[in-house]
Amino acid sequence: MNPALKLLVEAGYYVLRIFAIVAIALQALRRNKLRSVLTALGIIIGVAAVIAMVGVGQGAKSQVEQQIASLGRNVVLVFSGNFSRGGVSSGWLSAGTLSIPDADAIRLEIQDVVGVSPEVRRGFQVASGNQNWFTSVVGGSDAYFQIRQWEIVNGAGYTEQDVRGATKVCVLGKTVAEQLFNDEDPVGHIVRIGNVPFIILGVLASKGLSVMGTDQDDVVIMPYTSAMKRLMGGTMLRSVLVQTDAPEDLEDVRQQINDLLRQRHRIAVGKDDDFTVRTQEEIAQMATATSRVMSVLLIAIASVSLLVGGIGIMNIMLVSVTERTREIGIRMAVGARPRDILLQFLVEAITLSLMGGLIGIGIGIGTCKLLPILPRMFPDFPQMATLVSMPAVIIAVVFSAAIGIFFGFYPARKAAQLDPIEALRFE
Asked: What is the pTM assigned to this prediction?
């Protein structure tokens, strides 16, 4: 016979043999449908739980990243405070240690800086007509809106001349505008802040919640000079917002600011800073650290179900080997080889795992889609953001197949090692 033809015939023989073994394995599973489903249940629950937990974790991380992005683009934040005296650490914003000259020095002396805004903040009662609302009043420079990437959807912002002249003008956040004016256009109206009248120049686009869970739209923004001179008094700043030219400049600018302020504040070597400098990336890492830890913990707990499911598959396959000992002996007597028996039981275990994995993937994805809409049906249900992770889905499929191979190999090997004579005698 032609060698090529012989090779083709042998390949076809092995393919048909494999198909026959797979068909026998599937037929054995169909004979015990309920037991097969119950065996796969552990894998179904485990895979669904892992995908759902990863989805919740990814959704929380994405939500935090969006909130961090609302701070602006390429932002370095310089906070007043964070010093230790007498062994007591005061923390961020605990004392007024930043001044307007500090902000001017950052703008003039630090390379790769494209925007600087001093910032002061305090809560005030604001009123218009017979409506009033307690909100945060923020003072910033005319670059504040550019640094924060905060669009003015109605009206306009204040200018550098307004900052220099400490004019009584302001811009409202969406929440404040709705509380004071409902559907009326507030631009051009007068709002009283601490009994001082301010002209409303514009209304800001909605930004939603901050990293700390506060409403960023519940704010009135005005020139920092106006806030300090007309409302708050004092000469010290709460913080300084700094925008760099590119993301890769953030760390270098952070270090330059740190060195500059230590020099200006005459802080000796070895002494603690009386300020804190953080980049946007650092804040994002700190904000997402908790969600990452919780995600890992939840995934670890959910993975226990996969382990339990694998043990269940091994248990049922061992029972199946015992029940089908005579069938194994007959198959061996008519020509089945040990590797054929091994492959048959291995295919059964892998099929159970993959079937459970695919059903679990469907349930997991469905859970991720369902969780965000549950608060609409049940108002007391907590709001959750979820994000289906394709790598998690792929890993779930691979992991479920690996469980079938790992936990199915021992029962399959035990079946393959049965003595045909003893198997035929088995009752």
From this structure: 0.64
